[in-house]
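User: We ran a pulldown and think these components assemble together. Before we commit to crystallization trials, I'd like a predicted model of the whole complex to look at. Sequences follow.
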Amino acid sequence: MNAHTDNIAQYNFAYLDEQTKRMIRRAILKAIAIPGYQVPFASREMPMPYGWGTGGVQVTASIIGTDDVLKVIDQGADDTTNAVSIRAFFQKVANVAVTTHTADATIIQTRHRIPEEPLKSGQVLVYQVPIPEPLRFLEPRETETRKMHALEEYGLMHVKLYEDIAQHGHIATTFAYPVKVEGRYVMDPSPTPKFDNPKMHMSKALQLFGAGREKRIYAVPPYTRVESLDFEDHPFEIQTFDEPCALCGGTNVYLDEVVLDDRGGRMFVCSDTDNCEARRAEGHRGHLSGEEAATV
Amino acid sequence: MYVAVKGGEAAIQNAHRLLADRRRGDRNLPSITLEQIASQLSLAVDRVMSEGSLYDTGLAALAVKQARGDMIEAIFLLRAYRTTLPRFGYSRPVDTAAMLVERRVSATYKDLPGGQLLGPTFDYTHRLLDPELAEDAAPAAPEARSEAEEAMPRVSDILANEGLIEEDGSLPEDREPGDITREPPEFPMERDQRLQALSRGDEGFLLALGYSTQRGYGRNHPFAGEIRIGEVDVEIDVPELDFPLTLGRIRVTECQMVNQFKGSKKVPPQFTRGYGLVFGQSERKAMAMSLCDRALRANELDEDITAPAQDEEFVISHCDNVQATGFVEHLKLPHYVDFQAELGLVRQMRREYEERHKGAAADTERREAAE
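Assistant: Here's a predicted model for the assembly, 667 residues in total across the polymer chains.
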């Protein structure tokens, strides 16, 4: 263990040097000042690969302090491999307290989900973002998309959504569903399912988005309007599930489908593992948690 | 019964133990030393230094060893270390005219001051596998140059004396050279930043793009004006001193392509330059880089942009192999939340499709019955 600590002693608290943190904090402040605007920043190479959360890790590393409590989730779960790896990274380089409980965390770094439990004032939700540009798949050029944002020229996005409706009768975007922030910038909420979009609206927590490879940071300050794009006659809808969580019986939560056998057997369980565990601790039961209920 | 994907932590630890074991390989064989890698796999080390943007043969050799010979992984390791190092200054531009040249060839002049110098090249070797190398056959000692060293002016300078080639670009007095590792890149880029990105860009990607320009996708008629490999001094200015201090020497490969240019409204017909400079000995990379550099100057030279190699955003955004490998490989990470969303959508669309289909079939039946 000693050799371990000697070894990492050559890195600064939370890995990044203070100059870099200052640069990132300035980008974050600018992002907060212009909600939804993508601020370019001089993203660093991190000791994990691009595309694996380097943007989120840099944001977290720049804002974390010794008294913070960190939670890391991937797909809603604290125990997915990449979440484990990122949490271990911060334990190693910043020696901070970590938790799996949403309510206990001051900083929550996430990939692909927003916790089910409403966030509180003072909490920061850090999103890992692969492609920050909501218009990227409509226009591959950064030079063009920046112009479109500057001119608030979002017609292309509305045409895309309209084409979905013309073709399928409904909008066929299920995750990374574009939102408009405070009535100005169209923003990519990162690849969260559209189920989570309403949680961003008027959130009490600060939401920070880091895209390391694409070198962009953006933010949604607390109590900011976040509206999912839609049409009057085709209002935005979130996913619904036909059955409750098989373990905790939760409804109105996002579920993962787990394949049980090769004969079509499957079950649906909470994607947010912390929320599911908390509910089970409270005594809630789903139809497949029989033997656990017996042990309580 | 449902088994959650728990135990990520233990699984990761075990995977890494297995990795360390496989990296070491057969314990009956001696472990390969960093010195062996640096001296006998020196071109691998050079590539790692060049694309890792850090000149340190020892660390690059360590990275090659740690990465089990995976070049991009080794480059990544070196980059992740480099990024933690403080900047204490920027060197003066290296003077490649004053290089201690080990190899220098020009395809544009048969002979020239300083002569052609083949140096340690694979060129003109017959690519026949050498069974003797499987044994430990000692190679003959190399011939040492005996004659006094002659000055070796750059081919671009020879052409420039006649005014037949454009000037080397120069920055305005007040402009500091960019640093793509310290400022977010914005398009369109200046050439200094572009050259930095190309110099650390993936050899394979630039090779393919350079090749594409030769095959007509953005053709610009290149001649290899000169390729030189050797050591140059790295000097810095120290505020208290009125002369530059030499920090040390680095080995670099420089390539200057000479390209046709018919002239424009502002500029008379003359040759133009494509420039490549990389750490260590890597001619292929330096040549590919100079082809790409020239292709990317299309806008500056009022040329039509018709090919991928001329498209700055396309080339620069995709030439970094550390970025590319990270994002391609991130597809391995769990995506089941999004996949669940897509699964729901596809099921819904299938339902709608089948309903429409059934409706249409019923319609046809009804129509047939009516007829």
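Residues 1-9, 292-296 of chain A have pLDDT under 50 and may be disordered. That may be worth checking against your pulldown data before setting up trials.

User: Thanks, that helps.
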